[in-house]
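ok so for the tutorial part 2 we go from a plain amino acid sequence to predicted structure tokens. step 1 is just haveing the sequence, like this:
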Amino acid sequence: MATKRDIPADDSSTSKPVLLDEPIARGEQIIDSVTLRKPKAGELRGVSLMDLAQLDVTALQRIIPRVSIPTLTEADVANMCLADLLAVGAELAGFFQRKADKFSSLSA
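step 2 — the prediction. this is what the tokens look like for a chain of 108 residues:
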């Protein structure tokens, strides 16, 4: 079991960039990547953690606009291609894993 001192510093633990396969067009603006910030507990209000862990589309549509830079709308998320939605959802789900658990799964 890793101790706190054994866990490597992880500068990317609070944000993750995701390159989109199919950019989102919003008027003349083209969004080809989004950065997800690690959500705080209050930003998860109204959404089941189980639904997020299972990458439930409705849960993702509610949370992604709260933690994406640039801010995506629920409509943007609803119109994402499935591959991009899964990629964003997987990165979001990664925020719910403890640092010690990430480290131990990498060294196993």
